[in-house]
Design goal:
The complex is a heterodimer of chains A (307) and B (245). Chain A folds into 2 domains: 214 residues, P-loop containing nucleotide triphosphate hydrolases (Rossmann fold, 3-Layer(aba) Sandwich); 83 residues, Alpha-Beta Plaits, CATH 3.30.70. Chain A has 11 helices and 14 strands. In chain A, α4 crosses α5. Chain B has one domain. Chain B is built from 12 helices and no strands. Classes of the chains: A alpha/beta (307), B mainly alpha (245). At the A-B interface, α2 and α3 of A face α1 and α5 of B.
Chain lengths: 307, 245
């Protein structure tokens, strides 16, 4: 669906994207991840035909974004960062206008309008002035606009930014649902979001792709070096020494706490040290109130890879 | 074409939804009406045709109204970021410029129409003034030249509003250029060193004067239509220029 080769974008002397190449297959949900200023928005803007590239080629559905710009635009639904909308219009009017721009008129437009209002859950806001909508509703209006011409590809720039946790969950579920019919490319700097919605992750840093892999693979990569946290009561030095001696434990650190001592054990890849630690604690007769293996999340991967 | 109509309709509604436009409209009709009344009053007994006075009063205030109406055309889209959704919709830059231009143009025409009633209202209100000089043909000439100049000025304003993303800067640029066009035309008409052909051809104030006296000439019409087209073409190119960088 998307075919990017050696994509480069320079703003004057600043290189925003440096020789980026990647592919996205039809039906995939791909997350573009990176710290602020990494080049995510620039990449999406080039893909959406808003900005020209300084070098390299981008093809969407076999069409070049620069030379076949108009055809490409009719095949994508683009939601820019911060969801720009016409504040003075009503939701229905806005979506009708956007539908017209995208070549939908008459009965076909009315049918699609009805559908996207339902899909995005904004039927009740149809006659509301956009200015008076909450952030969550604005976001959904933006999504409805991106969806109205039923494009095969959706490009969403930070779709959940500025939303409250409830709304984030809703939008996330919504995007997951979209993956069944559309190819979705979304950007985010919130890792848990990408972890939960995307099949595949592209991590961009400093204008380069540092990682491109399936989300599951990345998580597996991290789980191989997990951490075990425990809270016990007993002689601190003895516990620390004994824990370090448990097979599979690489390093033990003591975290500041109250009456209970809190230890974090860094473990070697693929080893679950919890049964051994538990056996040790019961053998020594220390009081134990927590023993937990911390699952690595994408955040750790991200921090490790972009350090 | 249907996309152009959609953009045209959107721009029209945007004008009517914004309080700024209403305020300008009322203020424009108020001050131009007052200027017209003042002009009639001062010219009592003079042979100056009413249509000349009317056209002059409107032209004096037209740059301000065009500035206010046009300053938001593209600047507002850039400021709010909607330019991004607009330019990534499957419409060409030409369709966008044309739709926006026609939207603002229609609004301006609707705002100018009530001014046609001024002479008749004035005659009713002040029996001392008589409109024996009112020639309907001259009034038609005045209307034609007002439409032409409005079109040219609006095209200038569109180009100006594309140069910046700040409304104030856009407004000042537009206003400056429109006054320059009027004043420059007047100076050109008054100066003696300039060949008459050039002065007649380029001076907008000369066009206004000639038309509002009831003479319809083809050359000024061609001049304004061509200039408008050229300016709009420039605007399209300016909008496209982001893709050349």
């Amino acid at each position: 669906m998307i075919h990017v080769r050696n994509l480069t974008k320079r703003y004057g002397k600043v290189v925003a994207l440096d020789n980026v190449s990647f592919d996205v297959e039809a039906g995939e949900i791909v997350g573009v991840l990176g710290p602020n200023g990494a080049g995510k928005s620039t990449a999406l803007r080039i893909l959406s035909t808003y900005l020209p590239a300084s070098g390299g080629t981008v093809q969407i559905a076999g069409l070049d974004v620069f030379t076949d710009s108009l055809q490409v635009r009719s095949r994508i639904g683009y939601l820019p960062e911060s969801t720009p909308l016409y504040d003075d219009m009503r939701v229905g009017e806005y979506l009708t206008y956007r539908g017209n721009l995208k070549g939908l008129f008459g009965r076909r437009l009315r049918k699609r309008l009805y559908e996207v209002l339902a899909v995005c859950g904004i039927e009740d806001a149809r006659d509301s002035v956009i200015q008076h909508l909450s952030k969550g509703y604005r976001q959904r209006v933006g999504l409805a606009d991106a969806l109205i011409h039923d494009p095969p590809l959706l490009i969403l720039d930070e779709p959940t930014i500025g939303l409250d946790p409830h709304q984030i969950r809703e939008v996330r579920e919504f995007i997951k649902g979209l993956g069944k019919r559309h190819t979705v490319l979304l950007s985010s700097h919130i890792l848990s979001e990408v972890q939960m919605t995307c099949d595949r992750v592209l991590i961009i840093q400093g204008g380069r792709i540092v990682v491109s892999d399936r989300t599951a693979n990345l998580l597996a990569l991290m789980e191989s070096g997990g951490r075990v946290v425990l809270e016990v009561q007993g002689p601190a030095e003895v516990i620390e020494r004994q824990l370090a001696a448990v097979p599979g434990v690489k390093r033990v650190t003591r975290e500041p706490g109250g009456d209970w001592l809190r230890f974090v054990c860094l473990c070697e890849g693929g080893m679950d040290v919890r049964p051994d630690v538990f056996a040790l604690v019961t053998r020594e007769g220390w009081a134990l109130r927590e023993l937990q293996a911390e699952k690595a999340n994408l955040e750790d991967v991200f921090l490790q890879l972009t350090r | 074409m249907r996309q152009v109509i959609a953009i045209w309709r959107r721009e029209m509604t945007a004008c009517f939804l914004s309080p700024v436009a209403y305020v300008t409209l009322v203020a424009f009709l108020g001050v131009s009406g007052f200027t017209f009344w003042l002009a009639c009053f001062r010219n009592e007994g003079n042979p100056e045709p009413v249509s000349v006075l009317l056209c002059g009063s409107l032209m004096f205030w037209l740059p301000i109204m065009i500035t206010v109406v046009a300053m938001r055309l593209f600047v507002e889209e850039k400021r709010s970021g909607t330019i991004e959704t607009l330019l990534t919709a499957p419409v060409t830059e030409g369709q966008i410029v044309l739709g926006k231009y026609l939207g603002a143009f229609t609004f301006l025409l609707l705002a100018l129409v009530p001014a046609l009633a001024y002479p008749f209202v004035l005659e009713r209100l002040s029996p001392a003034l008589t409109l024996e000089n009112l020639d309907l043909g001259a009034l038609l000439g005045a209307s034609v030249v007002t439409v032409l100049v409005t079109g040219t000025f609006l095209a200038i304003a569109v180009v100006a509003s594309l140069t910046t993303r700040n409304q104030i800067v856009a407004a000042i640029c537009t206003f400056f250029m429109l006054w320059l066009a009027l004043l420059g035309g007047w100076l050109l008409g008054e100066s003696h060193g300039v060949p008459a052909v050039l002065a007649d051809g380029l001076s907008i104030t000369r066009h206004i004067d000639v038309f509002s006296r009831g003479t319809l000439e083809i050359r000024p019409i061609v001049f304004h239509v061509t200039l408008t087209g050229l300016l709009l073409f420039t605007a399209v190119r300016m909008l496209e220029s982001r893709r050349w960088k």
